[in-house]
Structure formats: structure tokens, C-alpha cells
Design brief:
Blueprint lengths: L29 H9 L4 H11 L9 E4 L9 H8 L1 E4 L3 H12 L1 H18 L7 H12 E5 L2 H8 L3 H7 L8 E4 L2 H6 L8 E5 L10 H8 L2 H4 L5 E4 L43
Parallel strand pairs: 1-2, 3-5
Antiparallel strand pairs: 3-4, 5-6
């Protein structure tokens, strides 16, 4: 359902709409966001207002501030870690970043702490190191999939027809979280080729402890190796009506076969997951 667009609503919010299947973890924030935008509030004001309405134990460990308060030359991640202030602009990209902080604060804080640690260790001159690069990729474009072993194996093998058709019924037992805020922004105008970098945790979807469990998964020792698998999101059953026609998956430019050089998945040696 698309929200109305009052005259006071910011122009950048014109394409914002709710009720999309990949927004399930943001649903609780949607009414407050819509009301704040309708009153002409920007990202900083609405995010701080929503944070104050959350129960204290679940509030993010940061407050939101204007992007202009980020000192010139100061690394963004280091500034957040040192000041507990998150510089934000009035646009959809930073809105979804703020919402992720509000909904998954422990995970965002863990990512930020690792990024700040790498900045302190290596500085910001030149290319990011492998850990910072991997964390930034997940923060912007990542997703998390809790799924039965058969789905997990089909994903790492890029066996798209088995993943989306042969095991289609198993998706009812899976939970896919679109974490990346850049990815959430792009999905407001869905394109068939939109692909997430998917992380596969072990075990059941932790439901009410999802944020805490995901934060524990963010460990520097393994994330520097980019433990992700590509997943074209609009192929997920129930997420996009055209994929009900299975010819949708015949597009090899999107559903690319494995090239035979893919990494061996760590899950082969790990405890199988269950839902």
C-alpha cells in the first residue's frame, strides 16, 4: 500500500511505500515514519523521535545528527563509534540506515565497532582492508537467510531451479532478512537483477532474539573472507508475482550457473541448520 504524499512530505520520500515482503522487520516503524514524514520531519528528527518511543533496553546506542556535524576528514564509522552520533542526510538511503539502527541496534553496533577498530589499526588512506570491505558490503547490500539444509545447499551450488522450483515448498520454513540499507532503497523500485550478498547462519531463526543472535555472528575472524552467497531477491517465492511463472528463472543473465570455481561452502562441515 502506497502512502499518500501531502504537500509537506519531503520530495525524496515520494517513492517510499510499505507492505513489501522484504520489509517485514521494519513494519513496526512504518506508521511512525509515515506520520513524521507527513509532518515534514527529516531523517534525524524522525529517527530520534522513534528511538525515544522504544523501550529503553531496545533503543539504539546512537543518536542521529545532521551530516554537517561530521568533521571534514573524519572517518564516518570512527565518528559514530567515538561520539555515538550517526550522521544522516535527508534521503531514502540514510532513512533505511537509521531504521536498521532502530530495529537491529546490536548488530549495527557490532559492525561499527569492527569497522572502527580496523580504521584505528590501518587508517583510512588507500583501499579498505578485507575486513572493512566485507563489513561495508554486508551493511549496504547484505541479507541473512535462515533455511533448511536443502535450501542452503542449493543456494551455495547456485542451482537456481532446485532452489526456487524443486524446493519451493521449503521456503515456507525459511526466513530471509534484507539487512543492507542500500538494498532496501533499491528494492523500492524492484529490478529482476537485484542481488543480495547472503550470509547463512547456523541453527533456527531466533525470532525475538534475532538482533542479539545476528550480532554474535558478526565475527572478524570469518567475515574478512566475505562468507556470502549471491541471491537474486526477486526469485524468492512469494516476493514477486512474476516468479509464479517458472519461465521467470530461465533468464541466465540473472540466474547464472555456477562456474565450477565457487568456494566450497563452510556449511558442509558445520552442523546442519533447521528451522
Amino acid at each position: 500500500m502506497t502512502d499518500p504524499a501531502p504537500a509537506s512530505r519531503p520530495d525524496w520520500a515520494a517513492t517510499l511505500h510499505w507492505g513489501l515482503p522484504w520489509q517485514w522487520h521494519l513494519t513496526a516503524c512504518a506508521p511512525m515514519v509515515s506520520q513524521s514524514l507527513a509532518r515534514g520531519r527529516g531523517v534525524v528528527e524522525l529517527a530520534n523521535q522513534i528511538a525515544q518511543q522504544l523501550p529503553e533496553p531496545t533503543r539504539p546506542g546512537v543518536r542521529f545528527t545532521a551530516q554537517s556535524n561530521l568533521p571534514p576528514g573524519q572517518a564516518y564509522e570512527a565518528f559514530i563509534f567515538q561520539t555515538r552520533l550517526c550522521p544522516s542526510r535527508d534521503n531514502l538511503h540514510d532513512l533505511f540506515n537509521a531504521l536498521t539502527w532502530l530495529v537491529l541496534p546490536r548488530t549495527k553496533a557490532r559492525l561499527n565497532a569492527l569497522q572502527a577498530g580496523e580504521i584505528e589499526r590501518c587508517g583510512v588512506v588507500g583501499r579498505r582492508g578485507p575486513l572493512r570491505d566485507a563489513l561495508t558490503l554486508f551493511d549496504e547490500n547484505g541479507a541473512v537467510l535462515w533455511a533448511p539444509p536443502a535450501l542452503r545447499q542449493a543456494l551455495v551450488e547456485r542451482d537456481w531451479r532446485r532452489l526456487f522450483i524443486g524446493h519451493r515448498a521449503l521456503w515456507a520454513q525459511a526466513r530471509l532478512l534484507v539487512f543492507g540499507h542500500a538494498l532496501q532503497e533499491k528494492l523500492l523500485q524492484p529490478r529482476k537483477a537485484l542481488t543480495a550478498h547472503v550470509y547463512l547462519p547456523q541453527g533456527r531463526w531466533p525470532r525475538l532474539q534475532m538482533d542479539e543472535a545476528l550480532a554474535q555472528e558478526v565475527q572478524a575472524s570469518s567475515w574478512s573472507e566475505k562468507p556470502y552467497w549471491p541471491l537474486p531477491l526477486l526469485g524468492v517465492p512469494g516476493w514477486y508475482l512474476p516468479n509464479e511463472n517458472f519461465s521467470f528463472y530461465d533468464d541466465a543473465s540473472v540466474f547464472r550457473p555456477a562456474d565450477g570455481k565457487a568456494r566450497k561452502p563452510q556449511l558442509e562441515k558445520a552442523r546442519p541448520a533447521s528451522i
